[in-house]
């Protein structure tokens, strides 16, 4: 069954990798692109090994298993490239060139190809060839330094350590999303020029770009970059923070604007002096204690009943299981079940060309025969390649 969505008709060749590359291709596949993943015949030993049912980022594409180290395997991939719009690779700089699948090789076959490259440090620079992961990339951008605790026992602004924010900022926010955006921008430009180009997406670049506002705040003198939990958006402001409830769960409060803070204050019975002096940092420690004391007086569900849906800028802090079952997510069908696994559905949404239901991740080589046949390979040729150990 073909994918549905606004990208229907777009063909993407994905050289199997880990992290942001697969997620970028998931985003494209979710929105209708025909993503063909070129898998190795044997596991690479990279990433987290798991049953394909749980490989959410690998959903909604097709898989061919090809040994690209062999000339016949390389040629088979180049044959697939001839009819593709996009190629995505996530290797260190120079690896695909050594494989004979670099930009020059691919553009010789298809000058219109958009060649997307996903790395941590970029295609050049003193760290370009170093191994790393999300945490290392965001450490270089200032983003990791700004996220974490201010110190022991709630002493804000002193000591403490940076806290890994999952791998959302480097791998996915600064990596997958910027690669997808870059690919779509190159496709838009291709409409004018008729030519493809290379998209160099580096997680250090994307993560730094995500932090643009904080560089501006720092330059304006309104962000203290030397400490944590002392600024407006890092947990320093008592009206932009999380609080523990009576049942040892947590809620989030974020009424940054005075009118929203006034709504919260009225709803929880906060002293009016805090409303009048919301941005007076000298009052923040007392304000925090006052809010914490009130919040501890009720359970999370009680706070939901009182504040959810109001302009108090409130939300309960949910686990992944709870998030999938929340009534708002249910109303929007934000989560789907694929092969027995609950997972987020395609995003964003489109009114005329909605995305279809995601399909399970393919088994390695599940579509080898079909995809190669579409590319013009005869059945006898495919059988011969399989006998030679070139495909599976």
Features:
single chain; 392 residues; alpha/beta; Rossmann fold; formyl-coa transferase, domain 3; 2 domains; 6-stranded parallel β-sheet; 3-stranded antiparallel β-sheet
Which helices and strands occur, and which strands form pairs?
Elements: E1 11-15, H1 20-30, E2 34-39, E3 62-65, H2 71-81, E4 86-89, H3 95-99, H4 103-109, E5 114-119, H5 134-139, H6 168-193, E6 198-202, H7 203-210, H8 212-219, E7 241-244, E8 250-253, H9 258-268, H10 272-276, H11 284-295, H12 300-307, E9 314-316, H13 320-325, H14 327-332, E10 335-338, E11 341-344, H15 368-374, H16 379-387
Parallel strand pairs: 1-2, 1-4, 2-3, 4-5, 5-6
Antiparallel strand pairs: 7-8, 8-9, 10-11
Helix pairs in contact: 1-6, 6-7
Strand order of the largest sheet: 3-2-1-4-5-6
Low-confidence residue ranges: none
How much of the sequence lies in strands comes to: 5-15%
Give the CA-based shape: elongated
Q: Count the strands?
A: 11
Q: Count of helical segments?
A: 16
CATH H-level superfamily title of the largest domain: Crotonobetainyl-coa:carnitine coa-transferase, domain 1
Shape-level CATH architecture of the largest domain = 3-Layer(aba) Sandwich
Secondary-structure class: alpha/beta
Which CATH C-level class of the largest domain is it? Alpha Beta
User: Which whole number gives the mean pLDDT?
Assistant: 96
Helix content bin = 25-40%
* Oligomer status: single chain
Give the CATH topology of the largest domain.
Rossmann fold
Cα(first) to Cα(last) distance is 22 Å
Q: What are the secondary-structure elements, in order, as H or E?
A: EHEEHEHHEHHEHHEEHHHHEHHEEHH
Number of structurally distinct domains? 2
Radius of gyration: 25 Å
Largest beta-sheet characterization: 6 strands, parallel
